[in-house]
Amino acid sequence: MLEDLTTAALSPTSWPTAYPKGYAVVDVETTGLARDDRIISAAVYRLDARGEVEDHWYTMVNPERDPGPVWIHGLTSEALEGAPLFQDIAEEFTARLAGRVLVAHNAVFDWQMIAREYARAQREAPVRQRLCTIALSKELGLPLPNHKLESLAAHFGVVQRRAHHALDDARVLAEAFRPSLKAAAASGVRLPLHECRPLTEWSDRPASPRIGQQAGYGGYRPGSWRPSRKRPACPYPNPGRYQPGGRLKQGMRVAFSGDTSVERDLLEDRATEAGLHVATSLSRLTSLLVTNDPDSGTSKVVKARQFGTPVVDEAAFGQLLADVEPASEG
């Protein structure tokens, strides 16, 4: 077995010193996949530096709204009625996450959901780095047919008992992460760690009307983490690329990638109000990419490198927004 080989290959002194000192393997179930959806259950398995389980914790959470796709997660309004609110479990959740790398399957989704709940509760999530097990399986070159959790579990012989139940999904992931971590350490693989920036501002907007409990998750488009919002068309022509050291100009096309400390929609609203064109994708016409992680492998960052698109971080973009040059007349 891979785990036996990697365990035998690693002596107490050969473990990579740069690896984290502890992990919090997390799974959350939610009312849907959009920015205004809520967490309805959460589970955390705490692991030590070498992936050994220390303890685990599970709670349901009252979302104060319709629970969404009950046929997926199995949590009805009646089951959630007496559950604690997120602000009631935030302190315990914090204790479980503090000082550890958050590990999840499709980690950016779990992180965004958690960050939004903390922001609603006017608290800050104690997470500074996350690790996605999908990204780790790619780094290890695991021969998986797809990137579903069930495929990763099957590869390591882990038996799922209750799919889409937060506690069992977290258990399965913890059991699959342990041999993955040992394999990475034995091969000297650099772990795909990404910075997490807690939200510093949050604005709940009215939820988009649900379109019935149809295919998809809670009536939202599969794969969408927030309802689409139609912004008014930018009235100014694109003046071209942003010149580093210069000013932004009305009409410039701006794209965003990765975590931001100000909630993404608020940043996009400010850009729109300043007369900029908020682009949902990156092309040769994009004037500027805003990202706090320019070394990430997201499609926008990769394309920005290919096209030579200028890149700034969120703080620099905030300063640029304070002095946007008016569009040329005529």
TrEMBL record:
Question: Which residue numbers delimit the Exonuclease domain?
Answer: 22-186
Q: Where is this region: Disordered?
A: 204-247
Spell out the CDD domains in the cross-references.
Answer: DEDDh (cd06127)
Tell me the keywords, alphabetical order.
Exonuclease, Hydrolase, Nuclease
Pfam families in alphabetical order = BRCT, RNase_T
Q: Which residues form the BRCT domain?
A: 246-324
The superkingdom of the source organism is Bacteria
The organism is Streptomyces lomondensis
InterPro entries documented for this protein:
BRCT_dom, BRCT_dom_sf, DnaQ, Ribonucl_H, RNaseH-like_sf, RNaseH_sf
Q: What is this protein called?
A: DNA polymerase III subunit epsilon
